[in-house]
Protein 1
Amino acid sequence: MANGLRWISTAYDMGYTFTLCEGIGPHDLLVRMGAEPHRLQDLSDDAVAELQMRPEVGHLNDLDFLDWEDESLVSRLTEGGFLSHPEAIVRAGAVPGWAYAVESITSRASAHLAALSQGTRAYTVFRSVNGEHEVGYAVDGQVLAYYEPVVRHTAEPDERRVPGFEYSGEEPLDVAFLRFLEIEHGIHVSWENFQAPLPTAAFA
């Protein structure tokens, strides 16, 4: 399972958030983040990138993925909030036993970590455009850890940390955390599945 998740760290120059929730589906994950089910659309990673880079004064025909004469699709995207320059766009997919979410630039998941973990557990890792990092862990509606790990030389068992994760400093923090999730839970997200249309929510 070489590079089962770590490739995600190279996909977003402007920063990203990757989140895992155990035992739920992609639609449920997005709803727990505040999405309305009827507003979800299946969008590819490239389509989301176009939407996020769309200029304020841009026309719909500037979007390569969208046939602006397709009134039904334009209507669905409008109703879903995708064409009104949303604050965050989050895509969600599934691997056996887990749902995952990816958001470019933003970190909406961190504010909804407790809700994401209701009745289960959730992990999240955030890297900003400036290289700042944070990781989080929540179980059954309670955030047990959300922090920026540093290299440690002594154990501090009473500190709120992600169980099992120790940062050595040998690689970027987000890469180390993705590696930890790969090894700890045997998770692999393929590039092909990731690029394909996935359930997606826009948040104002």
Protein 2
Amino acid sequence: MTKPNENGPPQAAFDFDARFMRKGKRSAIVLLPPDYLAPIGLIIAHWGQFERLFAVAIDAMLRAEAADGIARDWVRDSKRTSFKTRCRLLKDLCREWLAIKRPEQAKALMGIIDRASSLASKRNLIAHGSYAYAIEPHSSTVTNCRAVDHDTGKEMAFDETVLKKLYHDIAHETAELWFTLRSFCTIDGQLWTFEDAEILRIYRETDHPWNPNPNRQKLTPQS
């Protein structure tokens, strides 16, 4: 519960809400720097959005392939199947069915699958691994943050920048998947997307706490 040092190294801290503390209970704590917590949550949230769309892609292509008279030995309710296995299935669908009809879209989808496979391993470490870190003696400074999979021995070092890049990369692949699918099929529902260039334009042309610009002339309504 230390106050973050904005000008120094990240500090270990834990968060709590007094409304949910209970007499007689004990609380497990995670001593990660406070600025790391929101990016970790966004990694999980963005990946959930990607997984939902990924499942839509598999189901839509299985149905389309079946409509062409091709029977594939696969249970459509594949939520419990590993992501790696589902990636192989979608690649097979791209090579064996979609590439014949839409070669450009098939190539684009396979590129998304390859990039998502790499992101998935990092996301899994963050979401399902254990957090390891060191705290310097007689201080609250946290160093050497890592996500560890004790079953496989895999580790990933991370800081705030690594975490933020990961959820941005997932967001990019989700939007890419959405527009690739929309280019050859209809998808129910909506995914909110914005062009990065437009987001940056708005960011740079407006005054706000994260981009203060005292020299910019304020716009006033015309009378």
Protein 3
Amino acid sequence: MKIKTCFLLLLLVGGFSFAQTLEQLKVATKKIHEANYNMDFDSITKFSYPKIVTHYGKDKFLEKLDHDYQNETYRMRIQLENVVFEYGSIRLIDGVNFSVVSFKNPARYFYENKLDSNTSLIQANFLREKDRTRDVTFEPKRNSFNVRRTSKLVGVADASTQNQWRFFNMDDPEQRALFDSIFNENIKNQLGL
């Protein structure tokens, strides 16, 4: 009887911990998306995996974020404030919690200089590769591109984050490369990346 009671108690505690972790993941995901939507670079820094910020240095990372959103070539804006997140299962691998979060995340790129048919084609190809999507539409009257993409965040909770969810933005090629250098191929395979 004691064994059954202990087993039931263990299941309840484990289920509660998982539910609590999923709720924490949902809250953190919403906060990093809101920070990206509002171009709140300090909050993006706070919710990014710490080794990303360390890799650049905080000031350089903030500069990079600002440059990603607005530079001498274009201004990029995320179009949807409220999105539907699809959460992959939370996986404990080598003592680290991971979850892949996907969501539709269209963006618009407003170009500073007028694009002609030739330069718009070059920029469309650039955006297809950069945002890993084929759905890029040039709007000549607005001198902008509408980019429909599915974004992925990889949530990580480990000792370096005090077991709080922090993220890699897999839309960013440099963050993808950093993820690959920190975590081994086995982890990427288990996460389906």
Protein 4
Amino acid sequence: MTGDGRPVEEFTAELLAGEVFRPLGGVVEIGAVNATGTWRLADVSLGDLLDGRGAEVDVLLAGVRSACAFDSTTMSIAWDLGWLRPHDVTAASLLLWSGGLTGVPAELESPAVVRHMCQVGADLQLARLLHASVTAAVTARTEAKRGARALAAVLTAACALSGGPRPSDVLRLWRVAHLVHVLRPGSDASDAGRSAFRAYEHVLTATFDD
């Protein structure tokens, strides 16, 4: 079951890919802001981030394709969304990535507020990216050990891109924000689906947990 309560069986590859690649927008935009070290939007260059972190982007996309069994057409959604092309990063987009937690203060573009939005947004979007990726891998029936190893590489690359939390921190966030809803007694997940999510969590825990 996904975060919005729908069984994974209802999802096409295109819908699953959208769930995976939308949080990637937050990851790269927040990463570009964090890379400045000033948290001033005038200093942000998403093009510089993508040029300097091309290896992480390649690892992330390769891991998603391997674990989630997306074909070339489905993978193209990552590019169609525009996150992996240079574009301006705005305070409004950071507000969305951070779930509006800060509200709309008068000084929305101040470095202190921008840094806070980046901290919250990185936690939120990385946990969403992990959950969407595991959901897609479970739907594709990718064997858990192989799929989780690929997703461990995805998570490591995504955390490096974001300049935010460690993979082990994101794993903990995912458990409490998403996994518990899949595994709760009243969820719509099948027994096989629950077992698959537990298997992915087990491998990821062995990889990342301190």
